[in-house]
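Run: sequence + adenosine-5'-triphosphate -> complex structure.
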Amino acid sequence: MAIQTNTGTDIKEAFIRAFAPEAPNGQPIAPAVKESAAAALQALQFPHKKNEAWKYTPVQPLVSKAYIPAEATEPEDISPFLIPELEADVLVYINGKFSSAHSQIQHNKQLCIESLRQLSSQGKAVVEAHFGKLLNKDDIFAALNTAYAKDGTLVYVPKGTVAAAPIHIIQLTLPGQAACSLQHRNLFVVEPLAEAKVVESFYSLSTVPSLRNAGTEIFVGENAGLEYVKLQLEQHTASQIDHTEVSQARHSRFSIFTITLNGDTVRNDLQIHLDGTETETHLMGIYLLSGKQHVDNYTQILHKQPHCYSNELYKGIVADQATAAFSGKIHVFQQAQKTNAFQSNRNILLSKSANAYTRPQLEIYADDVKCSHGATTGKLEEDAMFYLRSRGIPEKQARKMLIHAFAGEVVEQISLEAVRTYLESLIASRYE
Amino acid sequence: MLKIDQLHAAIEGKEILKGFSLEVKPGEVHAIMGPNGSGKSTLASVLAGKEDYEVTSGSVSFNGKDLLEMEPDQRAGEGLFLAFQYPVEIPGVSMVNFLRTAVNAVREYRGQEPLSAGAFLKLMKEKKHMVDLDSDLTKRSVNEGFSGGEKKRNEIFQMAMLDPKLVILDETDSGLDIDALRIVADAVNKLRNEERSFIVITHYQRLLDYIVPDHVHVLHQGKIVKSGGKELALELEEKGYDWLKEGALGV
Ligand SMILES: Nc1ncnc2c1ncn2[C@@H]1O[C@H](COP(=O)(O)OP(=O)(O)OP(=O)(O)O)[C@@H](O)[C@H]1O
Ligand SMILES: [Mg+2]
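>> structure
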């Protein structure tokens, strides 16, 4: 099937239309915020080649495709997408639309876990109070998402509540007739002294290209904790532009794992605001790329308050002609004394035509801080490989052991054992 | 068992082994001594199958098979074991997982059943005792944070686990105190038998007091310049290598 391409000045208009078939008004979610985002969209442009933030990812090929909105197809059997042994509340979205038939929310009675299309009155109140407060308003994709995303997940954890079970969001892309556009929007609000764990996994069964424009806003309240694991497991036809923005109140703890094992072009924009003192943040990532995959992790952590700790570790294995890009901005504001911020990006290239770009950006305006960054790009340790093989371990198995060990440094920090096991098996099967 | 004939090998275009020949019969212990940079570790690496080295000419047969044709893991399966001069640290790979994988890989190669978990642990306990290896070390990642002596003992421990036919010890004694040296030597002596052969690379006659060799060879500039019995090692200790270097040049 031929994929159509738009050209010229109508690119932006056609693109927006593909993601926004309906007017923003008349929608139940925060109509005023949505309308103002739609208005702002008029003036926003796609990032230019010279835009530093998009240095490594060409936008044009992504946005000039002619997309049509993905239809909500007949639900299929979703059991292949469940994570074995993970006792969780499960929300299933098919082509961006909530499927109540496949979802099961039974463990977390005290939480408010809802589709944005089917909000309770409590859910509505939470959405009104938080929606659109955080997500970057100057970014065309984020604005598009705010204005036109129609569905997604609200997780609201009331004050002092510890979630009884993790929440698993499954985003499934099913085959369409032509290149399809999808959007979803998440809002996670964890109130003071509350705790929760969210796993979001992406799959696609589509053989035609798709582009998902995702947006997630997260508020972690005072002394609250949230762990968020994002598993991007789509096929090589699926592209994604994700914006995740987080605000942490004082004494809060937040960990995010961005795991990209598949996909075509994937851009993950992650921005974390440390709005309170003494917070703890872990930004972890793994990407295993092959073919012509292109994955760009663009991360920013804003140390605005004193005594905050952040630790960032992204590790990737890049094969074939794939490209990985990592940008890590650490911005330490003048008053953010006693900041501890660490960052590291490690890449292994498995072929000569694989690429990895690392760009640390430290902007430090306070004088009493501890910040460090490091980056390495190399081949799979040849000495280690030879050592294992000299003990009788065949090449394939030796490589698998070393890759397992390399990714393990990140994987082992995921607190949910079922997710760890699942991920380990996915990584292992990747190098069969 | 092992027959090396006129072996020439190079790294990065630089020839290191220049016509090395040696025959090792079952049950024999050969010591190879020689000044720094003479090519001892190169020989060990070429025999174990390290890819960086290019064999430009010569042949090596191991139990009647062409050793140079085999992958490093096949060589281990055939019974070759190299105790490295500089054992590699492998963070994230646990000793237990590494050993179990290695033991079962060579067993599979040799047509044996894999060891059950229980049998494996029993074997490990027994061999650990043999080299007096601290129990905690097997709970760590391979060689990670091991002291120099612990790394060397770990090599001997692996040797005992893998039941090899030909063992190459590359300076396993360097950096060991006398107690550790005795433990290593005892382990080697326990494994010595009619079938199993050893090539012991060392700078020190001291090791050869414990592991008494059948033959001693001096390697200089990529080939053997002198061979003799165990008394040659004593002579080398007294006189150094210079008298041989000159002799070698005269050849
Ligand atoms: N990767 C390499 N690239 C270039 N030259 C190398 C490389 N590895 C070894 N060599 C050279 O090969 C020669 C032999 O080195 P080798 O390690 O075999 O010596 P050795 O006899 O084991 O010495 P030692 O007693 O110090 O262990 C040396 O001149 C060394 O510099
Ligand atoms: Mg050496």
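>> summary
Residues B 40-41, 85, 170-171 surround magnesium ion (ligand 2) (CB under 6 Å). Chain B touches chain A through 30 residues (CB under 8 Å).
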